[in-house]
Amino acid sequence: MAPISVNIKHAGKTHDVQLDTALPPAVFKEAVYNVTGVPVDRMKVMVKGGILKDDSNWAKIGPKAGQTFMVIGTAGELPKAPEKPIVFLEDMADEDLAAALERPVGLLNLGNTCYMNSTVQALRAIPELQVALGVPSPNSSSSSSAPNISGTLPKPLRDLYANLSRTSDAVNPASFLNVLRQVNPQFAERDRRGKGTMVGMGGGYAQQDAEECYSQVLNSVRDVEVPDSLIHPGVIGGTGGQKKKFIEQYMMGEIRRELSSPESPDEAPTVTIEKIMKIECNINSQTNYMHSGIMSALTSVISKTSPTLGREAQYTQTSRITRLPSYLNVHMVRFAWKADVQKKAKIMRKVKFPTTYDAVDLTSPELREKLLPASRRLQEIEKERAERRKVRKRTKNAPAAGDPSTVVQDSITAGEDVTMASAEPGNVAGGALEDEEIYRAREKTELEALVDPDLRADVGASTTGLYELVAIITHKGAAADSGHYMAFVKKSVFHGPPPTLYTGPAANDAGTTNPESAPTRTADSNAMEADDASAPTSATITSPTGIDQSKQASSDPYAYEDDEDWYKFDDDKVSVFPKEKLSTLDGGGEDSSAYVLLYRSKEM
Fold first, then answer.
1. What is the rounded CA–CA span in Å between residue 271 and residue 347?
2. Residue among 492, 539, 551, 490 nearest 517 (CA)
3. pLDDT tens per residue across span 314-340
4. What is the C-alpha end-to-end distance of the chain, expressed in Å?
5. What stretch of H or E contains 301?
6. Are 196 and 481 in contact (CB under 8 A)?
């Protein structure tokens, strides 16, 4: 049946509206909203038999052409035409589509290459690495201005990350894989059992250890320098022109090992300082928690010849960390050599790992003294932020806290005396919350005063000793030379704020896989840049159903802090992994067990 023309009377005005009885009443209400500005949830349309409901039957109402319906309700702001042109998903380019869908893409398995795929995905949790590599932003069509990086592997890794950010389909990592096998020949080992045959490559490649691949990839990019965009201007002048290496600054710590023998107390302890890229969590029959396994690995007993006793003696090696990097790698030692079967076997014991880790207990007394003031205060601030989020959620639909008229009106209704101060703008009445930005600025100033100057000047060092878990590599199976590897990356890595970029050459070129991570030009580590009015406007992204996909939670720039879910990367399959299931990765069987954990330092 063709639509009929009816009249709508509201606030003394009459409007002509088309009514299609083949469509539900909700569609008609939407048309009424478009001409009257009365929101659907506050609208009452008077029809035959009472008020029009969403499940009302048009056949019983029997509307006729030219009939007038009365509308009751307070009008709000009339809907405006979209400021940006509407673009449907099927009409978008691959780069725009990838940005619209937001969900990251996976990597094709080329035959026992899950160890490499999980490594590449886990390293995406380090956006500063992509800045150092010069990964172009998704909306850039050329990487000609990328920094000149040395080494064989960094360039293919940069290209792979660029491809991952510019498509909505799984990426073939063949180019990166070939270079990886050239640089590290152990990953070109053939499968003697004849499994994992790769089509067109003359035979199958053997399964490899993801932790070994993770370490080798990091070693292969050790010559990549820290770009000036990641260094605070106040620090650049003190480097003496010597470029710092990214891996050394952001992912390597220092550890002091003290070797002494209780059998020879007169013998002076031997102290050595080493650089480390990971800390190990030893797993034995008593290990239930990651922290206890790490502490066990930091204290060990070895046998060696004593120069003072002239014989073999027992020595105790005590290790403590003297520098904590921004990114802390934890290796769960789940594979051990079994002499009776002459092969590596998997330790399936369940070991719980935290999503927030306090590494201060692992440090030397000197470093602990520098970390504690900012560390303890940051923990208190995080509790205060959590409480504020709860309050804001409870009062989300309440009137604005800073509206003086609301405060005065509520007081009059309650019969209370009203003072002039309570009605003045800017005063927070009744314990109402201030804008979150005010709290954050105050917290930033307070924490900056507590950070030790030596730690602040150390580029890429943790200034708090507090870490949050951002990526996990897991192993599924019972044997070390088989099974399946997967990666899990926290969603906030992709949808949270980008790393702070300062003025410098790389600030104009480098980007990250996050479409929102356009290089900034601010020296404020917590500043949130407003949209540049002079920048070209992008198209509004709309799905085939007409839903605007470009709307972000811009009203709350800290909404990502509430998103504790993860992305699960199972080769080319990417899915959302709820935070409630994270404990299933503790181990305890042949299912996926945490093998490599990547923690990011919590800063201001």
1. 32
2. 492
3. 999 999 999 999 999 999 999 887 777
4. 63
5. strand 299-306
6. no
Determine the 3-state secondary structure of 361 from DSSP: helix
Catalytic residues: 114, 484
Round to whole Å and give the CA distance between 104 and 108: 14
Write the DSSP string, 155-204: HHHHHHHHHHTS-SSPBP-HHHHHHHHHH-GGGG-B-TTS-SEETTTTEE
Cα separation, 189 vs 187, whole angstroms: 5
Enumerate the β-bridge partners of residue 88: 542
Q: How far, in Å, are 71, 123, 221, 351, 371 from residue 598 at the CA level?
A: 59, 9, 17, 16, 20
What are the φ and ψ backbone dihedral angles of 12, each rounded to 5 degrees?
Answer: 80, 0
What strands lie across the sheet with 13-19, from one edge to the other? 13-19, 4-10, 68-72, 44-47, 50-51
Per DSSP, the residues of 220-277 read HTTTPBPPGGGS-HHHHGGGTTPPPBHHHHHT-EEEEEEEE-TT-TTSPPEEEEEEES
d(CA 501, CA 441): 19
Class of residue 6 by CB neighbours under 10 A (exposed 0-12, middle 13-18, buried 19+)? buried
What token pair was written down for 120? 């590449």
Q: Which of 499, 477, 472, 412 is nearest to 595 (CA)?
A: 472
What 3-state class would DSSP assign to 368? helix
Q: What is the DSSP letter of 516?
A: T
Backbone angles phi, psi at 338, to 5 degrees: -105, 115
Name the amino acid, one letter, at 57.
N
Please give the Cα distance from 400 to 392 (Å, whole number). Answer: 11
3 state SS of 130: helix
Do the bridges between strand 68-72 and strand 4-10 make them parallel or antiparallel, or are there none, so unpaired? parallel
At 216, give phi and psi (nearest 5°): -70, -35
Kindly report the pTM of this predicted structure.
0.72
Which neighbouring-strand residues pair with 13?
Answer: 10
pLDDT digits (tens, 9 = 90+) for 404-449: 444 434 443 444 444 333 333 333 434 578 888 899 899 999 999 9
Give SS3 for 344: strand
Residues in the chain: 604
